[in-house]
Description:
There is one protein chain. The protein has 75 residues and is of the alpha+beta class. It has a domain at 25-75. The chain is built from 2 helices and 2 strands; from the N terminus they run αββα. The chain has helices at residues 3-25, 43-74, and strands at residues 29-33, 38-42. The chain has a two-stranded antiparallel sheet with strand order 1-2. A hairpin with a 4-residue loop joins strand 1 (29-33) and strand 2. The longest helix is centred in the C-terminal third of the chain and has 32 residues, at 43-74. It is flat. 0% of the residues are buried.
Amino acid sequence: MGILTIFLLILIVLFGIYSFVLLTLNKSVVYLDLLFLGLDIQLGLIILSSVLFGIMITVVLETIFFSSKSKKKDE
């Protein structure tokens, strides 16, 4: 195993621990009012979901950016 693989595993484990702590320690319930839907959700779940959603959007946009950059470089 390379150093990058070990670093990635440590990062995933730390993110999992952070997620667990965030969800278990935060018991505040927030009323989330979407356009036609109202939800009672724990604050920790909202924060964790928004972080994960932001990470997914970033990965998709970075993939699109770098794939278009490599196509221009080939031409």
